[in-house]
Amino acid sequence: MEIGAVNSLSYEDFVDTFGNVVEKCPIIVAAVWSRRPFASLLDMEVSINEFIEALPESGREGILRCHPDLAGKDLQSGTLTEESREEQGHAGLDTLDAAEIAHMARLNTQYKLRFGFPFVICARMNNKATILRELSERLKNDRAVELACAIEEVKKICHLRLKTLMLHDLPNKL
Amino acid sequence: MEIGAVNSLSYEDFVDTFGNVVEKCPIIVAAVWSRRPFASLLDMEVSINEFIEALPESGREGILRCHPDLAGKDLQSGTLTEESREEQGHAGLDTLDAAEIAHMARLNTQYKLRFGFPFVICARMNNKATILRELSERLKNDRAVELACAIEEVKKICHLRLKTLMLHDLPNKL
């Protein structure tokens, strides 16, 4: 998929295609459509990241609060977005045993009580062991450091979702 | 529903409950959760409006681009959000005849080509006749005036969705 074809999309097709590159935040790509034409996929990704960074702190927290828990109730009940389901599955979070699920839930709860947003990590770049280790480690961060850290993970997730769409899904949608 | 009960909601319950007061933009209430405690429902609504106004222009355009067309393909195919379906139905947009649907579609297309976002109006405060008249009239606005006008409509929709949730749905969800 060439960037020229992306640039020619109506805002409706653009939001339909890229709306979930940041989980449940279609407003972000809907806003970034205003920045066309993009010189490259990287240019588009930079525009998304700049939009995220220009949000007030509460807006960046809001992005995180639109994310599901890892190995949480949305995974158990089948209500994850397609992208999250694939990513959590890729990291092996859909095959945890009961003790592992309970352990993850305890840490997720501690994290949410401490920071007021869920633990977000790029599951495709991790596995069950590294996710649990990072969750325990990042619980020790102070709040400002952790917010920045979590937003960097959002950008990594976005990067991989964009790449996947450009390589695979997009030609079928057009 | 008392504001005290709203203030005691976890971010997850808050986003589950109020996530669509601005159409398909749960990030907005997810961000505004950081502003608790709210003194009143009005105070919460003011916080939402302030968040919207603090967005860059592209972000306000992004909000509009998350809205469906009035009497458009989402209404025809049954893919509107529950709130939009009720509102468009209230204004009689679900009982247009073929000629009226075609007329509305032509005007919607003209509007989107001119402004790069869809025509948004608070359907609950209007009917088929006033919506068609406003659509024709607002097509003549210059872009900055029209963006501001459309965002004021988003706030009216949000106001009525908030009131409905506080009066009816919320006690059942808690």
TrEMBL record, chains A, B:
Coiled coil: none annotated. Pathway: Purine metabolism; urate degradation; (S)-allantoin from urate: step 3/3. It catalyses: 5-hydroxy-2-oxo-4-ureido-2,5-dihydro-1H-imidazole-5-carboxylate + H(+) = (S)-allantoin + CO2. The keyword Lyase applies. Residues 7-163 form the Oxo-4-hydroxy-4-carboxy-5-ureidoimidazoline decarboxylase domain. It is an enzyme of class 4 (lyase). It is found in: Peroxisome. The keyword Lyase applies. GO terms for molecular function: 2-oxo-4-hydroxy-4-carboxy-5-ureidoimidazoline decarboxylase activity. One of its GO terms (cellular component) is peroxisome. GO terms for biological process: allantoin metabolic process; purine nucleobase metabolic process; urate catabolic process. Keywords: Decarboxylase, Lyase, Peroxisome, Purine metabolism. Its EC number is 4.1.1.97. Belongs to the OHCU decarboxylase family. Catalyzes the stereoselective decarboxylation of 2-oxo-4-hydroxy-4-carboxy-5-ureidoimidazoline (OHCU) to (S)-allantoin. PANTHER family: 2-OXO-4-HYDROXY-4-CARBOXY-5-UREIDOIMIDAZOLINE DECARBOXYLASE-RELATED (PTHR43466). This is 2-oxo-4-hydroxy-4-carboxy-5-ureidoimidazoline decarboxylase.
